[in-house]
Amino acid sequence: MNRKQLLNKFLANQCSAEEAKLVFSWLNENPKLLDDLISEDDWTSYIAQEKNVKRRNGNISKIFTVFVVFGLLFFCSNLFEERHGQIAQDIIRKTYYNPLSRPKEIITDDESHLILAPGALVQVRIKSNLDFRYVKVLEGKVQFEVAKDPSKPFIVESDQLTTTALGTQFIVNYTSRSKDVLVQLLEGKVRVAHIMQSAAQVKILKPGQQIHFSAASQMVLSDFGNTSKGTDRLVNFLPRLISTAKEKEYSYPMTIHQSTNWLEMEETSLSEIIQYINHELDMPVSYDSLLVRNYRLKGRFRRNATMDLQDKTQLAESILQLIVEVNPFKLEKQQNTYILKPKK
Q: Per the database record, which ranges form the FecR protein domain (predicted)?
């Protein structure tokens, strides 16, 4: 398939995700490519099919520029197919691309902020009725300020890595050609995991830490906060966003007590227990706050004196297992995230 055929396929919204990425790279390098390969009659015919775009006289490149700025962010919303079949097909999908020479800010439905560096391409699935919030970085550098919602983990996929946060600021930089991924944490805490998860392939980042992933080195943890190289990576972005909303911060439940070898829960609401699992055991859990609001749990669990990530995961899974055994709930797992749902 030559360039003209692929561009026609692109304009007809019939190309695959990989084909779309290729077209985006062409247009980013040469915005006049459509002028060269598509006739004015073909372009005018396509414009006539778009309900929100009126025909204008003048240079075709100007029409295309207006189209990019105001329409290109949304017309590919159904472009991408699911790779693993893990996410339901009825999810509303939006694709955003930054063709500009400066960073571009996107505000999602949950009021999270995404800052796209020039050439960045992302796919977003965020709706209030979904189990979790999901963004896929297909190309480039993106800075995230995640709106706090303890019941809906925020998951960013970039090639073979998933980065999960509840409410925080971080950067994901993905180069599709080399398959390199860089995750940098600015505030809060994130869990970075390989798609084929194992205990050795999960890292918890603190502010100033980063993960570099490549086919050769796998996951390498290091600090960037005290190095000029790390600082330079952040300077090129828009100024840090300050959230004006007053969010309820997590506080340790007074009904959960720890000793050297035991974790003991008095009667504790499921919402508090799940937030404890999220924050203290670094295990993302999605749940419906209205569904669990009238349920409480009491129990005692063995724990180690020193808890590594594998120990925390085992303890979290033990607590979740008890929740579903004594309550009308079931557990599912998607994108390395447990989802608490009602039994049917």
A: 105-191
The model's pTM: 0.69
Location of structure tokens 């009126």:
54
Give residue 203's identity as a one-letter amino acid code.
Answer: K
Amino acid 186 reads: L
Q: Is 247 left (phi over 0), alpha (psi -120 to 50) or beta?
A: beta
- Mention every residue, 6+ apart, whose C-beta is less than 8 A from residue 123: 80, 93, 94, 95, 135, 136, 138
Cβ neighbourhood burial of 101 (10 Å; 0-12, 13-18, 19+)? exposed
Residue 76: pLDDT band by 50, 70, 90 thresholds? very low
Domains of the chain listed by start with CATH number? 3-74 (no CATH), 80-235 (2.60.120.1440), 256-342 (3.55.50.30)
CB atoms within 10 A of CB 290: 8
